[in-house]
C-alpha cells in the first residue's frame, strides 16, 4: 500500500470513493432525512485536493483510504457563518450551521495562538479495509505534509464515534465536544439524528 498526496489526476476516483465509503456513513450526511450529500458539500470538500494537503492510500489502481484536508484561517468561524447564510435552505448550509457552533466552541486559533491551520474534512477508509489502521496512516501522512508546508497546527472535527476513537488512539488532544442533542431548530427538534453510537462532534488538535 502506498500513502501519498492526492493530485487533480485522482479527482474522479477520489470522488467516487468518498461517495461510496465516506458519505454513506458520515453522521452529518446520514443524520437528516435526505441522506445524500448535496453538490455544495461535495464541491467544497473535493476542492481540498487543490491545496496539496490531502492524502490517498492506494494499492495498485484501487483507493483504500482518503483524507481530504485543507488550510483554514483565524476568520474561519465568520467564513462558515457567511457561507451558511448565503446557501440558506440547502443541506450544506444546515451542516455549516452545526460546524459554526463547533468552530466557535473549539476556538482553536486563540487556544493555540496561531493564524492558520490544516483542517481534516473528509476521512474515509474502504469498507473492506477497516480495522487495519489505514486511517491512522493517512492521518499521519497529512501531518507530515502539513508540517513540511510550514503549518504548526492540525485540527479536525470528528462527527463519528469511530473517527474520534482513532484520533484518541493517535494521541490527539480533544479540545471541544458538541452533542448532537444540543443542536435544535426553532421548534426544539434535534436537527441531526445519526445512528445511536454517534453522540457528539469532537474537535481534536495536534501541534505539528
Ligand atoms: C473513521 C474510519 C475512517 C476509521 O477507519 P479505520 O482506519 O478502519 O479505523 P481503525 O483501524 O482505527 O478501526 C478500529 C476498529 O473500529 C472498527 N471500525 C472502524 N470503522 C468502523 C465502522 N464504520 N463500522 C464498524 N466498525 C468500524 C474496525 O473494524 C476496528 O475494529 P477492531 O479493532 O475490532 O478490528 C472509518 O470508520 C470510516 O471510513 N468511516 C466512514 C466515514 C466516516 O464516518 N468518517 C469519519 C467522519 S468524521
Descriptive notes:
There is one protein chain. The chain has 208 residues and is α+β, with helices and mostly antiparallel strands. The protein has a single domain, classed as 3-Layer(aba) Sandwich (Aminopeptidase). Helices cover 38% and strands 25% of the residues. The chain contains eight helices and seven strands; from the N terminus they run E-H-H-H-E-E-H-H-H-E-H-E-H-E-E. It has helices at 11-21, 27-30, 39-46, 76-86, 91-106, 108-112, 134-148, 161-169, and strands at 2-5, 55-59, 62-73, 116-125, 153-158, 173-179, 200-207. The chain has a seven-stranded mixed sheet, with helices on both faces. A hairpin with a 2-residue loop joins strand 2 (55-59) and strand 3 (62-73). The mean pLDDT is 98. Bound molecules: coenzyme A. Residues 21-22, 25-26, 123-125, 130-135, 158-160, 162-163, 166 line the site of coenzyme A.
Task: Briefly say what this structure is.
This protein is of the alpha+beta class and 208 residues long. The chain has eight helices and seven strands.
Summarize the main sheet: 7 strands, mixed
Count of DSSP helices? 8
Question: What is the fold named in CATH at topology level?
Answer: Aminopeptidase
Shape: globular
Do you know the CATH architecture?
3-Layer(aba) Sandwich
Strand content: 25-35%
Which helices and strands occur, and which strands form pairs?
Layout (H helix, E strand, L loop, with lengths): L1 E4 L5 H11 L5 H4 L8 H8 L8 E5 L2 E12 L2 H11 L4 H16 L1 H5 L3 E10 L8 H15 L4 E6 L2 H9 L3 E7 L20 E8 L1
Parallel strand pairs: 4-5
Antiparallel strand pairs: 1-2, 2-3, 3-4, 5-7, 6-7
Helix pairs in contact: 4-5
Coenzyme A binds next to strand 4, helix 7 and helix 8.
Amino acid at each position: 500500500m502506498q500513502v501519498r498526496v492526492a493530485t487533480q489526476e485522482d479527482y474522479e476516483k477520489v470522488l467516487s470513493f468518498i461517495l461510496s465509503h465516506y458519505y454513506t456513513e458520515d453522521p452529518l450526511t446520514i443524520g437528516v432525512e435526505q441522506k445524500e450529500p448535496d453538490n455544495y458539500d461535495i464541491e467544497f470538500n473535493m476542492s481540498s485536493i487543490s491545496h496539496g494537503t490531502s492524502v490517498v492510500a492506494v494499492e495498485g489502481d484501487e483507493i483504500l483510504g482518503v483524507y481530504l484536508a485543507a488550510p483554514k484561517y483565524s476568520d474561519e468561524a465568520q467564513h462558515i457563518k457567511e457561507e451558511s447564510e448565503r446557501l440558506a435552505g440547502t443541506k450544506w448550509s444546515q451542516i455549516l450551521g452545526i460546524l459554526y457552533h463547533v468552530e466557535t466552541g473549539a476556538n482553536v486559533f486563540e487556544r493555540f495562538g496561531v493564524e492558520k491551520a490544516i483542517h481534516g474534512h473528509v476521512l474515509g477508509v474502504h469498507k473492506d479495509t477497516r480495522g487495519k489502521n489505514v486511517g491512522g496512516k493517512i492521518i499521519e501522512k497529512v501531518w507530515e505534509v502539513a508540517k513540511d508546508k510550514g503549518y504548526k497546527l492540525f485540527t479536525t472535527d470528528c462527527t463519528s464515534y469511530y473517527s474520534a476513537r482513532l484520533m484518541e488512539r493517535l494521541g490527539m488532544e480533544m479540545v471541544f465536544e458538541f452533542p448532537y442533542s444540543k443542536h435544535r431548530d426553532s421548534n426544539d427538534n434535534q436537527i441531526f439524528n445519526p445512528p445511536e453510537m454517534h453522540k457528539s462532534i469532537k474537535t481534536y488538535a495536534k501541534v505539528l
